[in-house]
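Predict both folds.
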Amino acid sequence: METLLELYAETSDPDHPRVCFDETSKQLVQEVRPPQPAEPGKPARYDYEYQRNGVANLFVFYSPDHREGGWRHVEVTEQRTKIDFAGQMKTLVDEHFPEAKTIRVVLDNLNTHTPAALYEAFEPEEAQRLTRRLEFVYTPKHGSWLNQAEIELAALTRQCLEERIPDAPTLRRKVAAWEAPRNAAGLIIQWLFRVAQARTKLKHLYPSLS
């Protein structure tokens, strides 16, 4: 935990950017009857019936170290397998941070989140090239709340994902429309939880030497 908190406390370094990564799913739901828009004295109304259209996966990136300020990106996929994860890491290296020497990636301990996933997805030479550019920093067990990407994910859920969304193309349009103004504003998470607070508030998690 302290390793992660010290990472957050560092100053921005474009050669070694910090990128938080997380994922979630969204049930795709289509209206059976058109919603009734709001009218004077009446709220908008939605029919209780709906049609399930499967589930989409969302990969979420957040970094305070992008060249344009605070940056986030959401990628909608059908699945979240090791191959999908490896594809996201390749895009992170080659497209989002091509000039970085090493990208420190904060992520949780899912069995898909490993360097081995890149070797399952790519030829050994390519997998080695990518892993040399990536340094994985894992959140502690039961400590995924320490991943700053969860803050972005909470904002995304509250502001974009709570309504019914019928299909993946619509979902992509909505998350892109959510993402763009936040990136344009360069919004950066103000992380205030430091090592000193952890040693006080989470004292019970530290081993006792007495």
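Second protein follows, with its predicted structure tokens after the sequence.
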Amino acid sequence: MSVLCFFYFKSSTKISTENESIVLEPVILNYKNVSINVPAVNEEGKGAIVKLKVQAIQGEGRTLVNVDNLLFWVDTQFSIRTAKSVAENVTKLDLSDIDLIYTIETDASVIEGQSAGAALTIATVAAIQNKTINKNVIITGTILPDGKIGSVGSIFEKAKASKDMNATLFLVPQGQGTQINYMPEKKCDQIGPITYCATEYKQGKIDISKDAGIDVKEVSDINEALKYLLT
């Protein structure tokens, strides 16, 4: 009984048989270099957009970070590791022979380590599946090991920055389509010749979509977000 076997090689390999030599060409996998806009808040508390790039190449399953422009925090490392793990689970792809290279192309000092987690995951999935990211959509949110998208701060400021980048849809974690603010209100009472003043804080609610001028959609997990971001 004869057995037919298939072999995959990363470099050209020559196999000799009794009759002839067969040259097996290297298997080159088709991956994509992708970039995604990540909303953040700068040191002045204003919204900003940072460009993140993810490159997938054949390798040894390494996770690499271009540290030239990256303020590399421990929570950023955690977000990248989680993003890779979730992307692997979502796509069902084995990344043991794929190197992933993460690069921040603009001022990275404004990135909050974990708040870019959802965007990191989206970009990783796009890179290994050779997909294109919809530039009209921007997402904010942490990424949890089970693929859930967690809450972040400064939603309104990030929404404004996304609007300024001409995005038409802003994805936020579940329950964060509105933002609670506490506004100071000064009250004074006249008691005889003396005026007593005190500051009270009243709760107010901001409709992110209405006040920032951009459509807002709440998403609970990465699979839901992928429907809006990948083409």
